[in-house]
C-alpha cells in the first residue's frame, strides 16, 4: 500500500516601504487597496483617491507575489541544487511580469543592489527571510514596482515582486524597502 504524504506548506510575502526626505523625515505614501489593484491591472490607471482606492500613510505595507520561478529557487535552495542565493532588491517604473520587473531603474540612485538579509520569526522560529535595502536618490524617479533577485547587478531570477501606486522620489530622498518572505 502506497501512502502519499502531503503538507500545507506555502510561501507568502509582504513588503514595508518607507520614504524619507533629506532631513530624515518620513514622507507620506499612498497605500492602495484591492479596487486600485483592479483598476491598475485592467485599465492601467493609477488613481490615488483616498477612501475609494486606498489611503495616505507614512508606513506602507504591501502584500506581494511569489513567482513560479521563486518557488523553484526556494526548492533549489532547500535541496542545495543551486548556489545562487537571493540577495538583491531592484526597483522600477513599470509593472512586474512573472519573471522580471517591467522597467527596472538603473539611474538616479535606483540601481539594483545587495540587500541586508536576515532570518526572522513571524509565526514559528525562523519561518521568515527578510531583505532590507535603502536607496539614496540623485534624481527623480516615479517608482511603481520592486522585486527580489539572485543577481546583485542585472538579470538573474526573480523570487518575488509587487507593483504599487506611484512613489515619486527626488534628489536626496531615501527609500527603504523591507521585503519579507514567510514559509508557512
Number of domains: 1
Shape: globular
Q: Work out the radius of gyration.
A: 17 Å
Instruction: Please give the alpha-carbon distance between the first and last residues.
Output: 30 Å
Q: How many strands, which pairing sense, and closed or not: the largest β-sheet? A: 6 strands, antiparallel
Question: What is the tally of beta strands?
Answer: 13
* Coarse structural class: mainly beta
Estimate the helix proportion, in percent. 10-25%
Portion of residues in beta strands equals 35-45%
Q: Are there runs of 5+ residues with pLDDT below 50, and where?
A: 3-8
Can you lay out the helices and strands and say which pair or pack?
Elements lengths: L10 E10 L5 E2 L1 E4 L1 H10 L10 E4 L2 E4 L1 E2 L1 H12 L8 E5 L20 E2 L1 E5 L7 E9 L4 E9 L8 E12 L4 E10 L1
Antiparallel strand pairs: 1-2, 1-5, 1-13, 3-4, 6-12, 7-8, 7-11, 9-10, 10-13, 11-12
Amino acid at each position: 500500500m502506497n501512502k502519499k504524504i502531503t503538507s500545507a506548506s506555502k510561501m507568502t510575502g509582504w513588503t514595508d516601504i518607507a520614504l524619507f526626505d533629506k532631513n530624515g523625515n518620513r514622507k507620506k505614501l499612498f497605500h492602495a487597496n484591492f479596487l486600485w489593484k483592479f483598476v491598475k491591472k485592467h485599465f492601467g490607471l493609477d488613481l490615488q483617491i483616498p477612501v475609494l482606492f486606498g489611503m495616505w500613510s507614512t508606513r506602507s505595507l504591501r502584500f506581494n507575489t511569489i513567482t513560479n520561478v521563486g518557488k523553484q529557487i526556494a526548492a533549489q535552495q532547500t535541496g542545495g541544487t543551486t548556489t545562487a542565493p537571493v540577495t538583491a532588491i531592484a526597483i522600477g517604473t513599470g509593472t512586474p511580469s512573472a519573471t522580471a520587473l517591467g522597467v527596472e531603474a538603473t539611474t538616479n540612485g535606483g540601481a539594483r543592489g545587495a540587500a541586508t538579509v536576515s532570518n526572522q520569526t513571524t509565526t514559528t522560529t525562523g519561518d521568515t527571510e527578510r531583505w532590507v535595502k535603502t536607496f539614496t536618490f540623485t534624481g527623480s524617479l516615479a517608482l511603481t514596482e520592486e522585486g527580489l533577485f539572485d543577481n546583485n547587478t542585472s538579470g538573474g531570477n526573480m523570487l518575488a515582486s509587487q507593483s504599487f501606486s506611484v512613489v515619486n522620489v527626488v534628489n536626496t530622498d531615501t527609500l527603504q524597502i523591507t521585503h519579507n518572505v514567510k514559509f508557512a
